[in-house]
Design goal:
This protein is α/β, with parallel strands linked by helices and about 300 residues long. It is built from 14 helices and eight strands. A hairpin with a 2-residue loop joins strand 1 and strand 2. One of its GO terms (molecular function) is acyltransferase activity.
């Protein structure tokens, strides 16, 4: 009976996803899959065969961020890209913490339930601490790591992080996030060094998963966790050794105004076996330097 109920739930979720008129299937032409986790139904795509690449997004994005990577790399590799609960086409459960710690637990459960092995783990933004924490817990399943602009250490003493934290915990910050969809409409665009690299059609695919106040709570929760989860980030940094010893490819946008070159140097000092490629672009390297990043990952895996 339980198995029949789960199948029915997945069918309903799949039907709901396909009825989402805002999803541009010319840009995102993938079969929608769902996995029932303890906290809710997680949407993901699973395309191609070969070496496994697991793509982890941050905020305010979803698996759409990696659409071109999946279309290209799935010719030779198996590409899995998730949507964190509360993002993209995944379920948006009510009354959850929505912290990076919580998302990392969900990702770890996802990895174990699908029994994923020999993973090339690709992380970005908040997907860095989320994905790397899940990777630390499942280090025997991780083969190599690809890192876009991200962090994994205490943030509570950073002046810019403190400024953002103060704003998000104010009445005005909460109003902008929940009522104006500020994260996707304004902050995402600010992450581009060249605004022309964000077309109206692509921007819409980042805005529309969050149509109302309730759907934007996950954005606010993660934003508050920039400093709110500072101790947890540092704890993961101190436990990184099982992953730090693996091969890493760092793909870094040098014009990122928040996750700056100082962060890059901290990663380089920590990782004994890394290769770095720097790109003159902003925070969203995947959108501004798409082809170059795809080629770098493909070469990294095939070498």
């Amino acid at each position: 009976m339980k198995q029949v109920l789960n199948i029915l739930i997945l069918f309903i979720m799949s039907s709901t996803a396909f009825s989402q008129s805002w999803v541009d299937t010319s840009l995102y032409p993938f079969e929608n899959k769902f996995l029932r986790l303890e906290a809710g139904n997680m949407h993901y795509v699973d395309e191609g065969k070969g070496d496994l690449i697991l793509f982890i997004h941050g905020t305010p994005t979803w698996s759409f961020l990696y659409r071109d990577f999946i279309m290209d790399l799935s010719k030779d590799h198996r590409c899995i890209a998730i949507d964190h609960l509360g993002f993209g086409l995944s379920e948006k459960p009510d009354s959850v913490s929505g912290t990076p710690e919580w998302h990392a637990q969900n990702l770890s459960e996802f990895i174990k339930k699908l029994d994923l092995q020999d993973i090339t783990l690709v992380v970005h933004d908040f997907g860095g601490p989320i994905g790397l924490a899940a990777g630390i817990e499942n280090s025997e399943r991780i083969k190599r790591v690809v890192l876009f602009n991200s962090w994994l250490w205490a943030t509570n003493e950073g002046k810019q992080a403190q400024k953002i934290d103060k704003a998000l915990n104010s009445g005005l910050g909460k109003f902008l996030y929940l009522n104006m969809n500020f994260s996707t409409k304004v902050l995402l665009k600010k992450g581009f060094a060249n605004k022309k690299n964000l077309s109206k059609e692509v921007h819409e695919q980042y805005i529309k998963p969050f149509p109302d106040k309730g759907s934007r709570i996950p954005l606010l929760n993660l934003g508050k966790a920039l400093v709110g989860s500072s101790d947890w980030y540092q704890g993961q940094w101190e436990k990184l050794d099982p992953l730090a010893e693996k091969e890493w490819l760092i793909l870094w946008g040098t014009k990122d105004e928040f996750i700056t070159m100082e962060n890059l140097r901290k990663w380089q000092e920590r990782l004994p076996n890394h290769k770095t490629k720097e790109f003159e672009c902003g925070h969203f390297v995947q959108e501004e330097k798409t082809e170059e990043s795809i080629n770098a990952i493909d070469t990294f895996i095939k070498k």
